[in-house]
TrEMBL record:
GO molecular-function terms, A-Z: copper ion binding; cytochrome-c oxidase activity
Residue ranges occupied by any Cytochrome oxidase subunit II transmembrane region profile domain in the UniProt entry: 7-112
Keywords of the record: Copper, Electron transport, Membrane, Metal-binding, Respiratory chain, Translocase, Transmembrane, Transmembrane helix, Transport
Biological processes, Gene Ontology terms: ATP synthesis coupled electron transport
Main location: membrane
EC number: 7.1.1.9
Source superkingdom: Archaea
Subcellular location per the Swiss-Prot or TrEMBL entry: Membrane
Protein name: cytochrome-c oxidase
Span of domain Cytochrome oxidase subunit II copper A binding: 116-235
Organism: Marine Group III euryarchaeote CG-Epi3
């Protein structure tokens, strides 16, 4: 019941919230895969319905050659051309989508080093909260005024490369920032990392929401945090 009430009362991200992502190429790839999935799915369903209606058994129809009979091995009926078509066509489609994915995925997986990022943030997941610490001696600018605590609240500069070093204290969690298209597991005893260019989103007074997307206990759905993107005067 607690999970049902959480779904009713807490805002949940829509799948399209993450279609922008760290790379616009990745968002475009997601849309292409989605569109092709819909096209192929519709074609398959239409083809099945057509065959169900057109080839259904009617009164007076002769018994098909491959009809099942007790003690008789059924006659094999096939079409080599059709079998080759439904094997080669999906293979080409999958190969094409794989080729398209190489560049945007490589871009996303090319995580900048701590020294190369504008800001490095140490993220610690616990039941049920997110803890944030700036790394490498980063000093918060005076424009950062929205977070009174480093628990469940983070402020980062606009138009900057942000690296997140992520770990967990207790059980598996997952750091998910749908508006910026990033998701990374938080694993006890293991350091993982992801990154984002805050230039892909707007600096604003309202926060972007961080979710946990790995079930981690009774209050999993309430493991929420806020991240603010703030314009900083570099002068």
């Amino acid at each position: 019941m607690s999970l049902i009430s959480d779904l009713i009362y807490f805002e949940n991200p829509a799948i399209w919230d993450s279609f922008g992502g760290t790379s616009s190429g990745l968002g475009g790839l997601t849309w292409q895969m989605f569109i092709w999935s819909v096209v192929v799915g519709v074609l398959v369903i239409v083809w099945l319905i057509y065959n169900l209606i057109y080839f259904r058994h009617k009164e007076g129809d002769p018994e098909p050659k491959d009809a099942l009979k007790a003690g008789v091995f059924p006659h094999e009926r096939g079409d080599v051309k059709i079998e080759l078509t439904w094997t080669i066509a999906p293979l080409i489609l999958v190969a094409w989508l794989t080729f398209l994915s190489l560049a945007p995925l490589d871009y996303m997986w090319d995580i900048p080093d701590n020294e190369d990022a504008d800001v490095t943030v140490e993220v610690t997941a616990g039941s049920w909260y997110w803890g944030f610490e700036y790394a490498n001696g980063y000093v918060k600018p005076e424009e950062f005024t929205k977070c009174s605590s480093n628990i469940n609240c983070l402020e980062v500069p606009a138009n900057s490369i942000i690296r997140f070093n992520i770990t967990a204290q207790d059980v598996l969690h997952a750091f998910y920032l749908p508006d910026m298209g990033i998701k990374q597991d938080a694993v006890p005893g293991l350091d993982t990392a992801t990154w984002v260019d805050t230039g892909i989103v707007s600096a604003r007074d309202e926060p972007y929401r961080i979710y946990c997307t790995e079930y981690c206990g009774n209050s999993h759905s309430m493991m929420l945090a806020e991240i603010y993107v703030t314009e900083v005067n570099d002068a």
